Amino acid sequence: MSVRDRLAELGLELPKVAAPVAAYVPAVRSGNHVYTAGQLPFADGALLRTGYVGGEVSPEDAKELAAVCALNALAAVDSVVGLDGIVRIVKVVGFVASAQGFTGQPGVINGASELLGKVLGDAGVHARSAVGVSELPLGAPVELELIAEVR
């Protein structure tokens, strides 16, 4: 089953590649890896939420936003090599704009990790970092980047 078929089976649609908000490209291939830029929770060109997780944004909502970031990262990879060129996701780095005292960053980034596993199966299992930060671009609550091994 192709990755696109799996997305459709899950009721998901790959979005258009999110336009960069500064001087960079969404993804770059180097050898047999694709590195994505940080992906924010954009849908239809708009940031879905702003605020701090554990404050204005609940951890549950942030987890859903992390899944949106993962879909955007897959779209960035698709723009360079196509989804079926993915051998495996090697590494995910998730950033969570955290309210004072919030320590649930791993649970938030699980939204991305779980989505990648559902879409890519074993090829979606990856190493990961989940980092709490004081601010993210445009006030986003979550940002995600990944490295994909490709054919």
From TrEMBL:
It comes from the Bacteria. It holds the Pfam family YjgF_endoribonc. Residues 6-149 form the Endoribonuclease L-PSP/chorismate mutase-like domain. SUPFAM superfamilies: YjgF-like. PANTHER family: ENDORIBONUCLEASE L-PSP_CHORISMATE MUTASE-LIKE DOMAIN-CONTAINING PROTEIN, ENDORIBONUCLEASE-RELATED. This is Enamine deaminase RidA (YjgF/YER057c/UK114 family).
